[in-house]
From TrEMBL:
GO molecular function list: ATP binding; phenylalanine-tRNA ligase activity; tRNA binding
EC number: 6.1.1.20
Protein name: phenylalanine--tRNA ligase
Lineage, opening ranks: Eukaryota, Fungi, Dikarya, Basidiomycota, Agaricomycotina
A Pfam family that the UniProt record links to this protein: tRNA-synt_2d
GO cellular component, one term: phenylalanine-tRNA ligase complex
Claim: Aminoacyl-tRNA synthetase is one of the keywords in the record: yes
Species of the source: Asterophora parasitica
Keywords, comma-separated and alphabetical: Aminoacyl-tRNA synthetase, ATP-binding, Ligase, Nucleotide-binding, Protein biosynthesis
One Gene Ontology term from the biological process aspect of the record: phenylalanyl-tRNA aminoacylation
EC top class, as a word: ligase
Length: 549
């Protein structure tokens, strides 16, 4: 039928030059014009086939009509619910009133329920004692009349309010359709012979290619979707952020140790042993094995001393030191534990020690103050470093739309001599001075977030046990039209750095944020459980776009 319909369209255009309305066509095999929505869909398929060969062009005209529901069709045949209720009752004074229970038996539950209310509203029926009677001898069933008109014409002219009422009563449904105006195309012909799609050896040998018509390439057609795996949105955003760090000259830290000791996760960072973050309500502790191997004795002693008695300009926490608390094994609550490991190795040369493996593999990067290589640089074994990590952390939190017990932390660390807070957060552009270089004006934080597409950043003082000063990072979210917290930052305390062996003039910046929050913002996800977990849509992962900050 497809070819015969195409031929009909071409012959009609050839005779008339135009088909003003495809509803006037009669599809081969049918006796009536193609007025229905289904008929126009059939015609559209034929039009698109001819359009792909430039044989015709067409315009689309949208129309709206109405069709009866099953209940509406029943009313056209049997009358409305209210009319059937009226017909089942006797007139006043001419018979025994009909009780509601009797009415249900006569006309059915649905008709009795719907019809009584509308019949009362129309003034057709009334109560007499415990029963119902007619109040008028004749009625005009407007609902049935309106539905008959809709059935024949698809609408009620200039009576949109009545149509809306019939739709509300679910007696009709609105249907959207199309019809088309068709004209000749650039390659119009009355022949429906399909063009060749392949140039074969036989065509070349016989010379048939000289007289053959070939189908043009369709450069607007979408390619076939490839079969295979797809990267999760978290992995896409992770790679984007990783590339930002590498572009800024950072080296990636190894972070494969999900299990840490209380010493490296808390004590080495100068987190007090009485801190609430170390409670069972916030941290997952291992039941077997329970204790870690002891760290290097001298470093362990320096850390415990600064906690219990103070040192390096600090009074410490003045609280008893617990070896059992320090040796507990736990799932790391932050990747700063990995940063502590790497900073301790970075300070090895400062302590006059050798580190297993290549110590330089993590201790490289562009110096933030350009001190490296100067003739007057102190020969104490220190060299600047810029390190980063992106990996999983675990916290014993109540799961909700924005929190999980397992998530990813993005962390950056910069170590150099005489760093200041301005090197970390920079200054707003209104405070720029001509002789200050751009990186000092912007600071690492502003450069980092600018590369992520976040231009408006501000900071708020906060408390953190291992950084002073400490700052919360806020970014302006244009979609939410408000400032949202995106991370934390600060300068590591001397009580953390000097026990490792760093010289007094070495400063270390640190900042971190979750990986899930920017991913949710980029992909418009409101519930984290649709991003991670058993509710994740595989189809959504396959169709998710690449992310470019």
């Amino acid at each position: 039928m497809a070819e015969s319909l195409q031929q009909l369209i071409l012959d009609t255009i050839d005779a008339r030059s135009i088909i003003d309305d495809t509803r006037t066509l009669t599809i081969p095999g049918q006796s009536q014009p193609a007025a229905s929505h289904e008929d126009q869909i059939t015609i559209l398929g034929a039009l698109n086939s001819l359009l792909s060969r430039d044989m015709i062009v067409y315009e689309t005209h949208d129309i709206s009509s109405h069709a009866l529901t099953a209940e509406g069709s029943q009313i056209v045949t049997e009358g409305s619910h209210e009319a059937r209720v009226w017909a089942a009752l006797p007139e006043t004074g001419q018979g025994t009133p009909v009780t509601p229970a009797q009415l249900k038996k006569q006309v059915g539950d649905e008709t009795a329920k719907v019809g009584q209310g509308r019949a009362f509203k129309n003034g057709w029926i009334g109560k007499e004692g415990d029963g119902l009677v007619k109040l008028t001898g004749t009625v005009k069933d407007v609902t049935q009349i309106d539905l008959k008109e809709v059935a024949s014409s698809g609408t009620l002219k200039a009576r949109e309010k009545t149509l809306a009422d019939l739709r509300k009563r679910k007696l009709i449904v609105q249907r959207h359709g199309q019809w088309f105006t068709v004209r000749k195309g650039a390659a119009f012909s009355t022949s429906t012979a399909k063009p060749e799609t392949d140039l074969t050896v036989d065509m070349l040998t016989s010379g048939a290619w000289k007289t053959s018509t070939f189908k043009k390439y369709n450069f607007d057609a979408e390619g076939a979707p490839t079969e295979g795996g797809a990267l999760h949105p978290l992995l896409k955003v992770r790679e984007e952020i990783r590339n930002i760090f590498l572009e800024m000259g950072f080296a990636e830290m190894p972070t494969s140790s999900f299990v840490e000791s209380g010493f490296w996760c808390f004590d080495a960072l100068f987190v007090p042993q009485q801190h609430p973050a170390r409670d069972l309500q916030d941290t997952f502790y291992l039941s077997d094995p329970k204790e870690a191997l002891p760290p290097e004795p001298e470093y362990y002693k320096r850390v415990s001393t600064v906690h219990e008695y103070g040192g390096f300009g600090s009074t410490g926490y003045r609280a008893p030191w617990s070896h059992a608390e320090s040796n507990k094994l736990l799932l790391r609550t932050h990747t700063t534990a990995s940063s502590a490991h790497m900073l301790y190795k970075l300070a090895a040369k400062c302590r006059g020690e050798k580190v297993e493996g290549d110590a330089d593999e993590f201790a490289h990067g562009v110096s933030t103050t350009d001190n490296e290589g100067k003739k007057d640089e102190k020969d104490d074994g220190f060299r600047p470093a810029k390190l980063f990590s992106i990996d999983r952390v675990f916290r014993n939190e109540t799961m909700d739309a924005t929190h999980l017990a397992e998530f990813h932390q993005v962390e950056g660390v910069v170590a150099d001599r005489n760093l200041t807070l301005a090197d970390l957060i920079g200054r707003p552009l209104k405070f720029q001075k001509p002789f200050i270089c751009a990186k000092q004006i912007l600071g690492f934080m502003r450069v980092f977030f600018n590369k992520m597409g976040i231009e408006k950043v501000r900071f708020k003082p906060a408390y953190n046990p291992y950084t002073e000063p400490s700052l919360e990072i806020f970014a302006f979210h244009p979609m939410l039209d408000r400032w949202v917290e995106v991370g934390n930052s600060g300068m590591f305390r001397p009580e953390m750095l000097e026990p490792m062996g760093f010289p007094k003039d070495v400063r270390v910046h640190g900042w971190g944020l979750s990986l899930e929050r920017p991913t949710m913002i980029r992909y418009g996800i409101n519930n984290i459980r649709t991003l991670v977990g058993h509710k994740v849509s595989i189809e959504g992962i396959e169709s998710s776009p690449a992310v470019m900050f």
